[in-house]
């Protein structure tokens, strides 16, 4: 490939002769060689001679623009010599150097520059999100009161259709996973407890852990992945497509129309699926234990019945109810905060799942430590 | 005679069933040609075919002299890199800043150093009147600004031929005029040919050198804008004089 440029040194100045096209194929090379020439200390003037140059495209113009900026910053003179009309026209694309562009107020972007500003912006963001969350919960509760006192109505069939979507459609996966969890727990329990001659206590272990802990938790995690994500995606899409604004302009409160039905549905579905998951999980565990220990299943069920109190069920169901609300509120809140373009819907969906699971585990831990025994 | 940038010969395009048939027209270097027609006449289907997205059912499409659908994917990609497309929905990537959107073809397809890429982006943004918008997210731009950013991206590689789908649809007359001005400026500076799908009469009059009109499933008229405006063909007359038809 021929040399894209040759350099002629003169006292305190440099004349650069460009050869051939200054285009995408050569711009990198020309830039790499022009940069040190323009930076050279003794040089006060750079002449770029286009007499032997051909076509200049945007990349070539950009290279010349960078050399011009560099020379301007270091008080060096730049001369563009022997330009033909086409080259001159191409170089007219060059905007003024970045430093001298005066932005209008609308164009100015206020961006945090120091670490303190970044932290401040984050804190302000969290505070604004928290305020929006509280406002959403308050508005939804207010609409709930209006519906309960018959001053407003829910959209016809909305709660039922949500229960079907959240509950019935998710029943198979919940049942299967709960059964497999019970089987795994039963098998592990029998294997470990048999060594100590305490195989029969596997019933206590399965019963208590499924009812108080694992039943609510497994259902909550499945609901967070299925329902929480769906709520955030549905509401986020509606938000991006201005459907929620359309509701507001029609005088229809989106909290009553969209969020309340989902909250009521998950209030039924969460504890309902937890009951099913608990029963199926205990069944799976006792099935494995009865086979491994060669004992009738009825004996296990009888023992579980003796060991479990109504309070254990209340404990599990109360937790499942709170888990369900965490999922619905996180999904609704993050879905309603999506804005701009479809990317924000994906972000809202991911955040809804992560936030729900985080909230669930945090609450579970707090409940285990400070909750009723 | 200069070879056309785009040549369509007896083109039949559609999705399984023909939407447009018997389409033959050329676009020359530096020429702005408008593809006209009512909603649903097949303009956008034709645009997908000539931009390499939808193989024709019959006929030939030559882009920059190459029969793009007879080439393998690599060779077709090489040809299409010398064209640019600005989509109706702008198709800016929401996860990137305006500058990153515009720089994407440069970063993916060239080995230019980053300062040169940034300078080129600044230059193209200035050309479309978006100086200082580099760090903005597409979501924070107005409809007209997004269209102009999409135009900057479509022209970042100095293409020989640019396709624009409804560049000024849904914009107010002032913003629409600014888009037209940006297109004319880009043509003047870069010397590229432009194929514009539109039904904005003001825009057509302001920028198009020629127009090709579609109706009843085929190409129904072609010529300069003045010729089409004077035409007595029923479809053409109705399109240009909608209130007196």
Helix-strand layout with pairing:
The complex is a heterodimer of chains A (373) and B (245).
Chain A: E1 5-10, E2 13-18, E3 20-22, H1 24-39, E4 45-49, E5 53-56, H2 58-73, E6 77-81, H3 85-91, H4 115-148, H5 158-195, H6 202-240, H7 243-249, H8 254-293, H9 297-307, H10 310-336, H11 342-370
Parallel strand pairs in A: 2-4, 3-5, 4-6
Antiparallel strand pairs in A: 1-2
Helix pairs in contact in A: 1-2, 4-8, 4-10, 5-6, 5-8, 6-8, 6-9, 6-10, 6-11, 8-10, 10-11
Chain B: E1 6-15, E2 17-27, E3 32-36, H1 43-50, E4 58-63, E5 66-67, H2 73-80, E6 83-86, H3 98-109, H4 114-127, H5 143-154, E7 161-165, H6 173-190, E8 193-197, H7 201-207, E9 210-215, E10 218-224, H8 225-230, H9 234-240
Parallel strand pairs in B: 3-8, 3-9, 6-7, 7-8
Antiparallel strand pairs in B: 1-2, 1-4, 4-5, 9-10
Helix pairs in contact in B: 3-4, 3-5, 4-5, 5-6
Give a description of the structure:
Chain A is of the alpha/beta class. Chain A folds into 2 domains: 5-100, STAS domain (Transcription Regulator spoIIAA, 2-Layer Sandwich), CATH 3.30.750.24; 125-370, no CATH class. Helices cover 71% and strands 8% of the residues of chain A. Chain A has helices spanning 24-39, 58-73, 85-91, 115-148, 158-195, 202-240, 243-249, 254-293, 297-307, 310-336, 342-370, and strands at residues 5-10, 13-18, 20-22, 45-49, 53-56, 77-81. In chain A, the strands form 2 sheets. Chain A has a 4-stranded mixed beta sheet with strand order 1-2-4-6, covered by helices on one side. In chain A, strands 3-5 form a two-stranded parallel sheet. In chain A, a hairpin with a 2-residue loop joins strand 1 (5-10) and strand 2 (13-18). The longest helix of chain A has 40 residues, at 254-293. Residues 100-108 of chain A have low confidence and may be disordered. Chain B is of the alpha/beta class. Chain B folds into 2 domains: 1-82 and 159-245, Rossmann fold (3-Layer(aba) Sandwich); 91-158, no CATH class. Chain B is 38% helix and 25% strand. Chain B is built from 9 helices and 10 strands. In chain B, the strands form 2 sheets. In chain B, strands 6-7-8-3-9-10 form a 6-stranded mixed beta sheet. In chain B, a hairpin with a 2-residue loop joins strand 4 (58-63) and strand 5. The termini of chain B are far apart. The relative contact order of chain B is 0.17. The chains are: A alpha/beta (373), B alpha/beta (245). The interface between A and B is medium-sized, with 33 and 32 residues.
């Amino acid at each position: 490939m021929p040399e894209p440029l040759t350099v002629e040194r003169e006292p305190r100045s440099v004349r650069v002769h460009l050869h051939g096209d200054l285009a995408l194929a050569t711009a990198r090379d020309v830039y790499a060689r022009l940069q040190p020439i323009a930076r050279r200390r003794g040089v006060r003037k750079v002449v770029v001679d286009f007499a032997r140059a051909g076509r200049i495209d945007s990349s070539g113009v950009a290279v010349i623009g960078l050399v011009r900026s560099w020379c301007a910053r270091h008080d060096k003179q730049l001369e563009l010599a022997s330009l033909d009309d086409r080259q001159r026209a191409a170089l007219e694309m060059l905007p003024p150097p970045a430093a001298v562009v005066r932005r209008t107020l609308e164009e100015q972007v206020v961006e945090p520059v120091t670490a303190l500003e970044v932290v401040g912006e984050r804190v302000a963001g969290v505070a604004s999100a928290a305020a929006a969350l509280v406002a959403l919960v308050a508005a939804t509760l207010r609409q709930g009161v209006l519906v309960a006192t018959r001053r407003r109505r829910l959209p016809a069939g909305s709660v039922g259709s949500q229960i079907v979507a959240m509950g019935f459609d998710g029943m198979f996966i919940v049942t299967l996973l709960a059964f497999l969890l019970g089987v795994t727990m039963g098998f592990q329990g029998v294997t470990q407890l048999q060594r100590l001659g305490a195989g029969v206590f596997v019933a206590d272990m399965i019963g208590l852990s499924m009812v108080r802990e694992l039943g609510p938790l497994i259902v909550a995690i499945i609901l967070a992945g299925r329902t929480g994500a769906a709520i955030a995606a549905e509401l986020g899409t509606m938000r991006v497509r201005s459907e929620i604004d359309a509701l507001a302009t029609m005088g229809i409160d989106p909290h009553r129309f969209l969020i309340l039905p989902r909250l009521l549905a998950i209030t039924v579905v969460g504890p309902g699926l937890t009951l099913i998951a608990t029963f199926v999980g205990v069944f799976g565990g006792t099935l494995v234990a009865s086979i491994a220990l060669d004992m009738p299943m009825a004996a296990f069920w009888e023992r579980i019945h003796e060991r479990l109190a109504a309070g254990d069920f209340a404990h599990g169901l109360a937790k499942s109810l709170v888990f369900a609300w965490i999922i619905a509120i996180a999904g609704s809140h993050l879905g309603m905060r999506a804005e701009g373009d479809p990317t924000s819907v994906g972000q809202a969906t991911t955040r809804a799942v992560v936030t729900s699971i985080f909230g669930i585990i945090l609450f579970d831990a707090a409940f285990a430590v400070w909750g009723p025994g | 005679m200069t070879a056309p940038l785009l040549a369509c010969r007896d083109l039949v395009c559609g999705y399984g069933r023909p939407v447009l048939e018997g389409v033959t027209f050329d676009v020359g270097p530096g020429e702005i040609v408008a593809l006209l027609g009512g909603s649903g006449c097949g303009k956008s289907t034709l645009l997908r075919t000539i931009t390499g997205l939808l193989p024709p059912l019959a006929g030939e499409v030559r882009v920059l002299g190459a029969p793009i659908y007879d080439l393998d994917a690599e060779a077709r990609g090489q040809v299409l890199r010398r064209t640019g497309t600005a989509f109706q929905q702008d198709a800016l990537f929401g996860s990137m800043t305006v500058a990153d959107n515009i720089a994407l073809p440069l970063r993916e397809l060239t080995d230019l150093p980053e300062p040169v890429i940034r300078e080129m982006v600044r230059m193209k943004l200035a050309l479309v009147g978006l100086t200082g918008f580099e760090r903005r997210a597409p979501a924070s731009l107005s409809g007209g600004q997004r269209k102009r950013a999409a135009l900057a991206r479509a022209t970042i590689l100095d293409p020989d031929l640019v396709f624009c789908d409804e560049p000024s649809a849904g914009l107010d007359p002032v913003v629409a005029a600014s888009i037209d001005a940006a297109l004319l400026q880009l043509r003047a500076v870069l010397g590229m040919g432009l194929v514009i799908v539109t039904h904005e009469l003001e825009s057509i009059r302001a920028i198009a050198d020629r127009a090709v009109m579609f109706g009843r499933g085929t190409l129904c008229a072609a010529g300069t804008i003045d010729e089409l405006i004077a035409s007595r063909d029923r479809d053409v007359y109705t399109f240009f004089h909608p209130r007196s038809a």
